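Teaching assistant's notes for section 4

Start the section by putting this record on the projector. Ask students to predict, before seeing the second block, whether Cytochrome P450 will look compact or extended. Collect guesses on the board.
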Amino acid sequence: MEFLLLIASIILTGLYLWLRRPDPNLPPFPKRPLPLVGNLFHLADDSRPLFKRWRKQFGDIFSLNMGGTLVVVLNGFDVMKEAFVKKADAFSDRTPVFFDAATGIPEKGVAFSSGPEWKEQRSVALTILRKFGMGKNILVDKIQDVVSAYVDYLASQKGQPTDIRTMTNISTCNVICAIIIGHKFEFNDKEFQKLIAHLNSTALDQKNVSLINYISWLKYLPGDLFFAKKITLNVQVVLSLLKKFVAANRRTVVDFNDAGNFIEAYLAERNKKVQAGVSTYMDDENLLKTIHELFGAGTETTSTTIIWCVLYMINYPEMQEKVYAEIMEEVGSSRLPNMQDKTKLPYLNAVIMETQRLASIVPLSLLHLCSENVTLKGYTIPKGTWIIPNLDSVLHDKAIWGKDAMSFKPERFLDSTGKVQDREELIPFGIGRRVCLGEALANMELFLFLSNMFQRFQFLPKDKTPPSCNVYRFGLTCAPYPFEVRILPRKQQE
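Reveal the predicted structure now:
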């Protein structure tokens, strides 16, 4: 009897909330929420076209009810700049999500923490990353070492049709390894292969677990319909490997300036604060979560961008030839391109920027949490509202990029003299205080990988008709479906 009363009360509460009119000061709801589940079943696996249509109908800000949670979707550059830059104090916190909870140490690190703890962890992480590079020779040398091994692999394929995805993923992960633990792995190292496999599996399954962010009890259903158990297992395996890395780099005495990798530098800075009696959130849990985030985000996003760029170049061979001609003119073939060449290769830079824009590999940024009642563009956003930044709405906005916004056109990033024209609307890494921690590192990797690739090789489609640039699979990132390319050494073309 008590159980029936409970069920009845839940149903009646759901009906009441469904029949009640929403606050007129809230952003509009494109679809009337259903009882209990809200708008969850109105969304497809890929919400990009749906959000685009709703933006056109309802404006740059609209609301969703996701299992009882108020979610507001922000579209357009002006709206995002006002929220995440001008009103950053109200829009910079994070929501609790399943992926973070699966680590067993939620709200730690940089990506999923908030408040003073997040500010300290981000500041420390940026300081360490700047120490190891962001343009300095020490990091460039580490990346070049990985790139050299990567292009040797490409050369070994001898023009046979090859899917470069796996080796690209391995190589970008090795760059992160070089920074985090101070050395790279051999491609056939068993622990390294295990790390890659579990990182990749987690990335592919992200979309399946998203419903649990809003209806947490779904993870307790029999079986593993939403991949919660699989993702938890993958995350725990990765964390166990990272714990070994931390243990191997824990020296008794180490000065920050003498640290040889990220782990040593973090531990040195923590010990310095503890010894000085300075209050700090720095501990093993925050270290573990931060390096986990660097591995997860730094590997998948960079490798996926490289794959997209190759796909665009085999679809636009005249652009690939223009990139090659520029490299030959400014660098030649007797040495490898380096970061000092970046300003000399504006067309390559424009190709990379256009790839980031059009591929839009992370169309929806991580969820934000509104930490106070705030007004945005005339709408009331209540405290506790979850915020979805729709980066896609900026990167593909015809009002910004022109009527040909969905065409691949590197020239949009060049001025009348052929120099690179930076555009503040290019926000593939996000905007405001929560912009991706590894943005500078990713841009260095993209330039060094792609400049070396296009210097050494011509990339051709496996068949006469290249794979389409307009289809993709949606996981942690929007990635092209697997495809093969023929990789011909440029010396065969001369």
